[in-house]
Structures are given as structure tokens and as C-alpha cells.
Amino acid sequence: MSDQPHRLLGRRVFLFRSQDTTAPACAPLAQIAPSCLAFRGTACMTCRDACEPGAIRFSLAIGGARPRVEAGICTGCGECVPGCPASAISIVPRPMEETADA
Ligand code: SF4
Ligand code: SF4
Fold it and tell me: Measured between alpha carbons, how far is 83 from 89 in angstroms, rounded to an integer?
């Protein structure tokens, strides 16, 4: 019971970070194709490790954790691209609705 306040504090910090927006409005965006190994049942988190801003998050799913790109955090820097063993990541223009909202 004594560590409960720490857990709550950590949860608040996590929620704040998940809403963080660091990407410039006009920045391109990383996109992960279905050829990603994680979508095919092979454990891989190389892209997450390469992403310094922490824009690549994994969600649990049947068959293993699957990556997604947090558009508000991705800067389009491309650091995640060369390490992907499946060449599944490309840098694409940000969708118009996102650039218009920013
Ligand atoms: S590095 Fe490539 S294959 Fe591995 S999880 Fe990321 S997108 Fe998928
Ligand atoms: S392009 Fe850069 S910021 Fe975006 S997911 Fe890849 S490494 Fe992270």
C-alpha cells in the first residue's frame, strides 16, 4: 500500500507524455507497412529502439506486439528506416487533416 502514491504519480506522468506533441506541423511521418515482421508473428522492436523521440509504440495483439507511429510525436527524421529488417518503414507526407489542425 505504501507505494501506491508513486504508482499513481507514474501513471499521471505516462498520460502526460502520451499526449505530448513534438512534431512540427509540416513534418513528414513514418509509416509502417504490413510487411513488418511484428505483423507476421516475429518479435521485433528495432524501430522503437531507434526512435529517440519515442514515437513508435507497441500495442499487444493476438500473435504478439505490433508497432504504430504516434503522429504527434514523429518528426519524420527517418532514424527508424535503415534498421528495419523488413524494409517496412517509409517516410511519407503528413496527411492534410493533421497539417491543417496544427
Ligand atoms: S523494425 Fe521493421 S520489422 Fe521490426 S517492428 Fe519495426 S517496422 Fe516491424
Ligand atoms: S521518423 Fe524519426 S521520429 Fe518518426 S518514428 Fe522514425 S525515428 Fe521516430
Answer: 9
Ligand 1, atom 7, lies closest to the CA of 36
Pocket, ligand 1, Cβ cutoff 6 A: 32, 36-38, 44-47, 67, 84-86, 88-89
Starting from the CA of residue 83, give the closest ligand: 1
Verdict on whether the full-model pTM lies above 0.85:
no
Residue 30 CA, ligand 2 centroid: distance in Å: 6
Domain range annotation of the chain = 23-101
- Reported as a single tens digit per residue, the pLDDT across 84-97 is 999 999 999 998 76
Class at the top of the CATH hierarchy for domain 23-101: alpha beta
pLDDT tens per residue across span 4-22: 444 434 333 333 344 456 6
